[in-house]
Structures are given as C-alpha cells and as structure tokens.
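Before the break, one more example. Copy the sequence into your notebook; we will annotate it together after we see the structure.
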Amino acid sequence: MVSPKLTRRAAVLRLSALAIAFPANAETVVNLTWRDLLPEDDTSLPGNLQGILPHDETTMAARQPMSTGIRTDWNGQIVQLSGFVVPIDYQGTGVTAFILVPFVGACIHVPPPPANQLVFVTTKTPYEGSGMFEAVTVTGIFGTASTTTELAEVGYALSADEIRPYPK
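Here is what the structure looks like once it is written out:
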C-alpha cells in the first residue's frame, strides 16, 4: 500500500507534469541500467545482498539501507529499465502498481535495496504477468518521486506505457 506521502495518482500527476515541463522526443527511449540510478560519485554495488535475515527477525523495510541520493537526469524522459516485479496493487488478475527491483527477492525475502535502487511503476492497463518476481522490461515516463510503501522507501517513479516479459 502506498502511504499518504505519495499516492499512485499523485505519482502519475507528478510524472505528467514532468513530461510537460521536459518534453521528450517520442522516438528517443533512454535505456537505463540500475547503476545509472545511483549518483555519479557512488561507488557502492547496487543490489548488495549482505544482511540477509531470517523472515521473523524484523521487518524488511526496517532493514533498508540509506540511499546515497537520486539522479534527476532522466526526469520527464521516456526510459526503458529491466528488473523484477514486486506487486502493490491489482485490478482483477492484473497488476496496476508495483515496485521494480534490481534483483529477485528484494523487499520480500531480503531487505530492500536503497530507495535509489527502487522504482514505483504504475500502469493504466493491468499487466497480466506470470507471478511474483517476474523479470520484465518497462518503458514509460520516468521521474524522481519519494514514495513510501509497506515494503520500502522508493526514490523513483515510472508511468508505464509498455511492460513486457524480459527476454529469456
């Protein structure tokens, strides 16, 4: 569930405002990697799995490491990023909001990565995936947006125009 800090509607409105303020060429899609979301001077390894805990010991969100900052380079641009789905909201059997994470198990089986390694994705068309932790590639309008969920603090948002299974 999204906290009052930033609702799904507010995230979409922010991304829409960014798209108007920073119009992108519809032909230009920026292919991002998870390393691209870290500040330029950050030398830490994204997706570090240190600190794995037994499930009953503490909440995963409480074990989330501090973010070293976010990047605004791609605000309002159309980007493409691949990762794994951690569902948040459903419409019927399709997911309409999820956290895109860089590695399997993030936020559920291991503590979440820092906020600058998490992307809150919303889509108008529910995505009928194959289940939790499916690898996908998401394309859409990208921006910075501090979002709080029960699972983690999230630093980025993406309004998805296309979600497709990651090539096997």
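Residues 35 and 46 are 7 Å apart (CA to CA). The radius of gyration is 15 Å. Try to locate both features in your own notes.
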